[in-house]
Every structure is written in structure tokens, then in C-alpha cells.
Design brief:
By secondary structure, the protein is α/β, with parallel strands linked by helices. It has helices at residues 3-14, 46-58, 89-100, 130-137, 152-163, 176-189, 194-197, 213-236; strands at residues 19-24, 30-34, 38-39, 62-66, 69-76, 81-85, 104-108, 124-126, 143-147, 169-172, 200-201. The protein has a 6-stranded parallel β-sheet, with helices on both faces. The protein has a 5-stranded antiparallel β-sheet with strand order 3-2-1-5-4, sandwiched between helices.
Amino acid sequence: MKAETIKALQDARTQRRAVTLATRLSDAAEALVYLDKAEGPLASDAAIVTAARQAMDIGRSETVDIGGQKIFLNVYVPPARLIVVGAVHIAQSLAPMATMLDFDVTVVDPRGAWATANRFPGVKVIQDWADEAFQAMGLDASTAVVTLTHDPKLDDPALEAALKSDVFYVGALGSRRTHAKRKERLMSEAGITEEQFARIHGPIGLNIGAKSPAEIAVSILGQIVEVRARRLEALAAPKVAAA
């Protein structure tokens, strides 16, 4: 692998950019294929670029045959990330559980008394408003966003930003009545559409009769894992051509 290729892959990882390195096995010719561009000697081959992006969607490296050429598609996607808005008791259980499942966890809350390293050991904690934190962090298709504060001043900006991004999961704590009021606010004040709002899992979590903070955290994490798995299954399913 060329030095410039290694640097490009390292840069993509730092920036949380998905990329596929397509290599022709016969002569080691390469292309770096991103969601928005492709670079390298093979970048002009539309079939290779399309296959590379399909592999990126699925998150699976593989060798494919394209026009009689053996092409190895080496996929590099950002690790799954969970952003928890609200440094509350549920978050104290959810963060370490998600870390055990290899999620890159960040807790965001502007309230300094709540968002501390002592309450969230081993987890990145950002004392900032969620929309501002999101802008600095960037949101992508490997990210799940959960809001837990019950405070519209904290939750609504986070939900607005998440719904206008391509994160794979959005969940919000609260009763059905709270969720209905949330819908009214976001649609009238933030311009969220019906289709966008429907992406929110609210009330959040699987219906397992959870009561305690730890049980609620289990239900939330279970739902995130389920949504992520179903998404990957859908992406990996063979496309059926229309009749």
C-alpha cells in the first residue's frame, strides 16, 4: 500500500469519513472511493466505484468480479458511535453498556454539575449545548443520538440537528403525551417534516417493562442494536429489479 494511501485512510478515520480502498488484484491499481468522490487510477471505472460504495453501505470488505477483473474492496467505516444528550442517571448506565458493545460513546450536557468525568469514567464528556457540540463533532450514518433530559431547551435542538442528518438512530425519552408536544414544537418551530419526525423512537427503547435506570438503558441499547442490524440487513439484501 502506498504511503499516500495510508495517509488518506488515516485522515478519513480521524474525520470519521467512510472510504473504500478498491484494489485490482492483477496489478495493484487502486482507487479511494468516498461517498462524494473517488480518487486514483481506477476512479474512472463507474462499476468499480458503484461496487465500492455498495460495500461501504454494508460495511463489508470483499473480492468482487467486475468486467473480468478481480477487485478487492477494503472497507473502512467509522466505528459505531452513540451520543447521549443529558448526563442523567439513565446515561450513567447506558454509557458503559454501550462501551462494552464497542460503541464510541460521548455524553453531551451543558450542565457542569452533571456532565463530569467522575460520573462518566472512561467516556468522553462535553459540557456544551447539543447542537453546538454536534456541529463540532459531525453526525454521520454510523451515529446514534439519544436525548434523555426531558427539557425541551436541551433536547429539541439536539433532535432537530439529528433529524436533519443521516444518523441511523434517533431516540427521545418521554411519555406519549410528551412526544406529541415534542412533535408540535419541532414541526412548528424547527420546520421538521412529518417524515423526519417519524424517525424518532419515542417513547424510547424496546417495550420490555423497564422501570429502573439500568433497565431503561438495556431497552434503549437493545433498540439501537436492533435498528442497526435491520439497517445493515436491508442494505445487504439483493436488489430486485422492477418488472
